[in-house]
Amino acid sequence: MSYDSIIIGAGLSGLTCALLLGRSGRKVLVLEQNAHVAPLVRGFNRNGLYFDSGFHYAGGLGDDGPLDLFFRHLGLAGKLNLFPFAQDGFDGLRLSATGQDFFLPVGLANIETVLSDRFPQAREKISAFLLEVSSRWRNFPYLDLDVDLADFGIKVVHGMSLQERLREFEPWPQLQGILSMHSLLYGLPPESVSVSFNAVVAGSYYHSAHGIVGGGRSLINAFQDLLAEADVEILCNKDVAGVLTGNHGVSGVRLTSGEEFPAGEVVATLNPGLLPQLFPPGTFRPAYSKRLINLRQTSSAYIGFFRTRGTSEFLRGRNLFIQSHPGIFNGSADQALEERSFYVTGADQGSSGGINGVVCIVPARYDEVSCWQAPGPGRPEGYIAWKKEIGERLLTMLKKSCPEISEPELVELGTPLTFCRYSRANEGAVYGTGHWLGQYNPHPATRLPGLFLSGQAVTAPGLLGAITAAYLTCGSILGHEHLRGELRTCR
Ligand SMILES: Cc1cc2nc3c(=O)[nH]c(=O)nc-3n(C[C@H](O)[C@H](O)[C@H](O)COP(=O)(O)OP(=O)(O)OC[C@H]3O[C@@H](n4cnc5c(N)ncnc54)[C@H](O)[C@@H]3O)c2cc1C
Is the Cβ atom of 179 under 6 angstroms away from ligand 1? Predict the structure, then answer.
């Protein structure tokens, strides 16, 4: 069987590419190495509770939001029930030392009001900072359909760092923390990310914050229904070992099993650092291969899944970003575990019952777990005991920082090795390749005819970032003006 397009990877970006290409009349095949479609975001059940893993909430799904437009164009809007996060405070910064909280309301104007009320002496600076966010967060191809594509540069990774920009807020360390806490959502330290890139991610949440009833699993089920209607084939447990090339460019893919699938075009959504190993030496210019292999990745994480005895209603429609010391948010894993900043969210918030589970994401380093990495399935002896110890330490951190959570009990723990296994993340990079200040991540179109790249490395992490990447990639294939024209008709 020959295909027009093969997509490597059934993550959010791969599924979106498959839908756009399938609907354009192409015969599309998606190949996923994991046993399940979208292993990162489909979540899981334990102890009668549903837990989300790689999706908890999304920015830009409100009226006039770019993700809302993508959802309507893709047909996801009609298949999903959304719920808004708390309008008066969806994301809060908590200082663990004092238990002091500050919650951001939804909407840039509301944010400006509450921040100016709380920090009146910084009013003008706050206003200028938020004005920058509002002018920059949609300055990305496909997020603003009224701007000519030629006017978009990939400038977002240049300019001043977030840390430098926040220096003028030094007299108000709590404010510095609030304005930088969303750096945890893209896995880079504020000193290594541009103000513009922070605006792209944080700005989408400032615009609007929503959850999906049924979480990541509902989202993936909706994708699968739409892909079936578009006659797209998806095969799991299919590990792509190589991309085949001929005189005219790409000609198909080969699996580790030796099975081959011919195709005229291949879209690779895996981490671009892994791309060169799929091609025979000499396919790419040495400088391009080197650039891909050396791309810097985001940090890794531990992800603790807890059940609670009573319900944790204070977390409904609200996330907590927990920081031990005031000042610019430090989302790195350089300190002792107990000193690290972390993120807490309620499990299965869209369900009509109470919130009986909590998910906690704490930055981690790959070298903390690399000794347990063994080839093949299974883990060396000792890993289980070590995981138990980390789980107990996370539990203590959670109890200490969030005494409102009623008797949390760990039910599962993901480590950097989990991310390596589930999504082939390089060294467990939680958001894949990072958008580091000054780093040129690859473009969707390559010099090899028929080879395209997509995924969070191309644009930004998150549901919005991965879907935007897919539009950018499919625009390179189908024509940007054609795809943007289709989107305009959905406004
Ligand atoms: C803990 C965590 C929490 C998150 N929370 C949120 C959130 O609340 N909101 C939000 O918007 N985003 C969130 N994200 C980010 C979001 O999940 C990701 O940015 C997004 O899913 C990335 O999609 P992708 O398609 O680019 O990459 P991936 O999902 O990594 O897709 C790539 C796919 O390629 C497959 N693959 C790799 N190599 C091969 C091969 N050789 N052959 C076949 N298949 C291969 C992988 O298995 C993978 O499924 C979170 C992520 C994590 C890890």
Answer: no
Q: Which residues pair with 91 in a beta bridge?
A: 104, 319
Nearest in space to 104 (alpha carbons), one of 40, 181, 52: 181
Probe residue for ligand 1, chosen from 235, 269, 420 as the CB with the greatest number of ligand atoms within 8 Å = 269
468 located within any domain: yes
The pLDDT tens digits for 214-262 are: 999 999 999 999 999 999 999 999 999 999 999 999 999 999 999 999 9
Q: Which tokens sit at 433?
A: 């390749």
Q: Look at ligand 1, atom 8, and give the residue with the nearest C-alpha.
A: 56
Q: What is the pTM of this model?
A: 0.98
CA distance 279 to 292: 13
Ligand 1 mean position, distance from CA 7 (Å): 14
Q: Tell me the residue range of the domain where 281 lies.
A: 3-44+54-79+213-295+434-489
Q: What is the CATH number of the domain that holds 246?
A: 3.50.50.60
Q: 329: CA distance to ligand 1 center in Å?
A: 24
- Given the structure tokens 């809007």, which residue do they identify? 77
Look-up of token digits 């099993």: 257
Q: How many domains does the chain have?
A: 1
Give residue-wise pLDDT tens across range 35-55.
Answer: 999 999 999 999 999 999 999
User: How far apart are alpha carbons 308 and 302 in whole angstroms?
Assistant: 19
